[in-house]
């Protein structure tokens, strides 16, 4: 975890993280998350894990039905960037999502751009540690295929989809929506919406 943070999520990498907001994959993710939040008024509490730079702050502030957002992040520099976004709803927690289950419950959890940063075992631990606190819905991203896990570009873990679906179902959830973004890396980059 520390090596990953130090390599990709500190200093200028953290400060410039939101510069990706104009790329197709970012917009694809953003639209799905924003549409879901605005159209599901039964969601009052959100777990954003990892919080990153607090990229969903604007829609979470705009959605009057959202009362509280708990953001879980391990990188101090990403936390500093997240706190630059003014939010009356956000509670920030410095948290190791690989080792520590989230205890506070939320109606919706967001697991965006996290599960492909780790090998299968750690990624499954992250998923389990977040889903245990999720009451209703989860939106997650996963680069996957039907083969054995693979490491691409020395950073991106392409996961075996069936293994993750099994873990999702074991946690009491089902996939209610799955969309594929057009990207250049091998495997399918999916945004999945889960419901309990």
Tally of alpha and pi helices: 7
Whole-angstrom Rg? 15 Å
Instruction: List the quaternary state of the chains.
Output: single chain
Q: Strand fraction band?
A: 25-35%
CATH architecture: 3-Layer(aba) Sandwich
Q: Assign the CATH superfamily.
A: Vaccinia Virus protein VP39
Q: Report the count of strand segments.
A: 9
**CATH T-level topology:** Rossmann fold
Task: Please bin the fraction of helical residues.
Answer: 25-40%
Supply the number of structural domains.
1
Q: Are there runs of 5+ residues with pLDDT below 50, and where?
A: none
Element-level helix/strand string: HHHEHEHEEHEEEHEE
Ends: how far apart? Answer: 29 Å
* Largest sheet geometry: 9 strands, mixed
Specify the structural class: alpha/beta
Report the principal-axis shape: globular
Mean pLDDT metric: 91
What is the level 1 CATH name? Alpha Beta
């Amino acid at each position: 975890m520390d090596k990953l943070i130090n390599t990709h999520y500190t200093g200028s990498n953290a400060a410039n993280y939101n510069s990706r907001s104009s790329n197709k994959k970012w917009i694809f993710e953003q639209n799905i998350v924003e549409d879901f939040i605005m159209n599901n008024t039964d969601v009052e509490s959100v777990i954003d894990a990892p919080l990153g730079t607090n990229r969903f702050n604007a829609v979470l502030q705009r959605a009057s039905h959202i009362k509280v957002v708990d953001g879980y992040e391990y990188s101090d520099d990403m936390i500093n960037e997240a706190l630059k976004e003014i939010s009356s709803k956000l509670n920030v927690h410095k948290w190791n999502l690989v080792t520590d289950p989230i205890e506070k419950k939320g109606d919706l959890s967001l697991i965006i751009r996290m599960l492909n940063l780790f090998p299968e075992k750690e990624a499954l631990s992250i998923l389990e540690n977040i889903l245990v606190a999720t009451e209703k819905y989860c939106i997650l991203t996963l680069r996957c295929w039907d083969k054995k896990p693979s490491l691409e570009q020395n950073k991106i873990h392409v996961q075996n989809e069936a293994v993750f679906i099994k873990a999702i179902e074991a946690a009491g959830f089902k996939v209610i929506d799955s969309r594929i973004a057009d990207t250049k890396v091998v495997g399918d980059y999916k945004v999945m919406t889960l419901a309990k």
